[in-house]
Amino acid sequence: MRYVINPFREAGPFPMPSRSAVRGFHRSLPGYSPTPLVRLTGLAKSLGVGDFYLKYEGARFGLSAFKALGGSWALHRLLASRPGTFTTVSTASEGNHGRAVAWAARLMKIPCVIFLPAHAAAERIANIEHEGATVMLVDGTYEDAVRRCDRESGERGWQIISDVGYEGYLEIPPLVVEGYSTIFGEIDEQLAAEGWPSPDLVLIPGGVGGILQAGVDHYRGLADPPAIVGVEPQAADCLTTSLGSPGGAPAISQGDRATTLACLNCAEVSWPSWPSIRRGVDAMMAIDDEAAFDAVRRLYRPVPGDRSLEAGNSGAAATDGLVTLMNDPRCVELKNHLRAGPETVVLALCTEAAIDRAAFQQVIGSN
User: Fold this and answer.
1) In whole angstroms, how far apart are CA 93 and each of 161, 245, 271?
2) Mean pLDDT of the chain
3) pTM exceeds 0.85, yes or no
């Protein structure tokens, strides 16, 4: 485990544009309903914090992950602004984003091609094919799949709907991030409806940075924002490495990519997301896989009185960030910096259910 306290954090609040059009669009989609905000008071007490809320994205549109919010909004915007300019959409993915784009393309009756690393779990491949998309398996990493998708899509005239921005592809990823804003709008409404206090600390998974940017954009628009911490695997720690680099410039992960947190196994930061993250987060944490397994088990076999939840390894990352923060003696400086203690109200995102069932069974059966 390692962490970086952000030396580039800027004072806020930052401008926050209205996302009412995004919310209205998502409400119009078949199967839309807000995902649960689960209060885990037993886990909070066991960790020594005042309260703990988990936004559980495992029920989103029946796709078991949050990604449909971004892919559907981006495709909707492109179809409205560029009618008739493309006949097929494509993207590269570790699984969840690809399934989301395939689902949105099926709803909007557009052919779809998804590029996946060949090591992708069989369940993730089958889920994408079930949405009617063509799956192209690519030898190598997620970044290899991104490059293959970019090259072939350019040659064939396919429209890429990616959540990662890179040189020559910077316009569309911010649309995906806009789509993720629905999560945080739902949280605000759910807290108000329940009469629960707003969070003092928010933990969000990293990946290429899209969902983390959406959280930063939302919470740093407040006059009194919570502390925001991004969490990613140590083996794929591009955001933590970037925050600790000279000048806070985007940097490639130095990890070996040997992580089971498949949907966070990213070596390169999304360029459009990085400026918001660099100026807005309070810290980044890089965790190891065994700690994430512990979080999966804590959610599945909860403290008595708490609700049992099935989370994938990537989905449990933010919960593990809290467990590590409160229990690991190496985190004392970070814990003090964040003022995390018995009065702190904490929110974490669980971004996916246990999609890879074989991996989930292995984790929950290993202790």
Assistant:
1) 10, 26, 17
2) 96
3) yes
- Start-end of H helices in the chain: 20-28, 41-47, 68-81, 96-107, 122-130, 142-156, 173-194, 210-219, 238-243, 274-280, 289-300, 317-327, 332-338, 357-364
* 231 vs 315: CA distance, rounded Å: 11
Instruction: Tell me how crowded residue 24 is: count the other CB atoms within 10 A of its CB.
Output: 9
Question: Which token pair is 237?
Answer: 């720690």
Q: How far apart are CA 261 and CA 266, in angstroms?
A: 10
**Residues in Cβ contact with 247 at an 8 Å cutoff, skipping those fewer than 6 apart:** none
Distance CA 131, CA 14 (A): 38
Q: Which residue type occupies 167?
A: E
The closest alpha carbon to 103, from 151, 66, 140, belongs to: 66
Give SS3 for 217.
helix
The reported pLDDT for the residue numbered 367 is 53
At 274, list the tokens.
């990085």
pLDDT of 95 = 87
Rounded Cα gap, residues 55 and 35, in angstroms: 7
- Cα 269 vs. chain centroid, distance in angstroms? 13
Query: Cα separation of 34 and 119, whole Å?
Result: 32
Q: What is the mean pLDDT of residues 75-92?
A: 94
Cα–Cα distance for residue pair 99/256, rounded to 1 Å:
26
C-alpha–C-alpha distance, residues 274 and 284, integer Å: 13
d(Cα 36, Cα 307) in Å, to the nearest integer? 11
Question: 157, 151, 280: which is closest to 215 by C-alpha?
Answer: 280
Residues constituting the chain: 367
Nearest alpha-carbon partner for 227 in 325, 313, 320, 293: 325
The pLDDT confidence band at residue 67, using thresholds 50, 70 and 90, is very high
Distance CA 253, CA 238 (A): 4
What is the bridge-based pairing of β-strands 89-92 and 283-287? Answer: unpaired
**From CA 239, how far away is CA 284, in angstroms rounded?**
7
| Range with lowest mean pLDDT among 10-14, 68-72, 225-229, 230-234 | 10-14
Q: Name the CA radius of gyration of the chain, rounded.
A: 19
- Which of the four pLDDT bands, split at 50, 70 and 90, describes residue 193? very high
Helix/strand/coil for 159: strand
**What is the token pair recorded at 178?**
């806009």
User: What pLDDT, on a 0 to 100 scale, did the predictor assign at position 17?
Assistant: 87
